[in-house]
Amino acid sequence: MKFKKLVSGVAMLALSTVLLAACGGDKKDDTSASSSTASSSTAVADSSSTADSFVMGELKDGEYKLEEKNYNNGYRVVFTIVVKDGKITESNYDNVNEEGKSKVDDADYNKKMEEVAKTSPEKYIPELNKALLEKQNPSDIDTITGATHSTDSFKEYAKQLIEAAEKGDTKTIEIDNQVEK
């Protein structure tokens, strides 16, 4: 009798584990996207395209720009990279409000985020830009604790800019980041 209960218990535990793993699935993130080849590319949010390893090809010199179309919490991403001699020489990722002012300069926002997340845009935005210049590959950039969502967006958007640089496509990539309600 005890053996039968033990076998039943182990079977239930195994079944529960399988069910939980199957239900876990992939989490979706509204910030990442993939671009189309239209003259002004538009993307639909989907982070499943963010890979742990991103294989880069040869980059063509030029300036490559990406912009979110809509404001989220009062800000939208604008991101430009410059490629010279096949290397990323400038990374200008930022979040700007309707007046074009950077989140880095929003003292109240930075103070509140620092209290909660132990980091703020004035810290992590320059850190992300510097990391891309040093690593050259978004997959090699470490996630910044307290700014996971922003790091993931940065990596996905950097990947899209690099893909444009591989093709030499200097058209602005527009991200439709409309949050559905």
Structural shape: globular
Between the first and last Cα atoms, what is the distance in angstroms? Answer: 55 Å
Largest sheet: 6 strands, mixed
Fold-level CATH name of the domain at 62-175: Sufe protein. Chain: A
CATH class of the domain at 62-175: Alpha Beta
Percent of sequence in beta strands:
15-25%
Order of helices and strands: HEEEEEHHHE
The proportion of residues forming helix, as a percent range, comes to: 25-40%
What's the number of helices? 4
Average of per-residue pLDDT values: 80
Radius of gyration: 21 Å
Give the low-pLDDT segments.
13-51
Strand segment count: 6
- Counting helices, strands and paired strands, the structural category is alpha/beta
Give the strand line-up of the largest sheet: 1-2-6-3-4-5
Q: Would you give an account of this structure?
A:
Keywords: Signal. Residues 32-50 have a biased composition (Low complexity). This protein has 181 residues and is of the alpha/beta class. It has a domain at 62-175: Sufe protein. Chain: A. The protein has 4 helices and 6 strands. The chain has helices at residues 2-24, 107-117, 121-135, 148-167; strands at 33-34, 42-45, 62-68, 76-84, 87-96, 173-175. The chain has a 6-stranded mixed β-sheet. A hairpin with a 7-residue loop joins β1 (33-34) and β2. The termini are far apart. Residues 13-51 have low confidence and may be disordered.
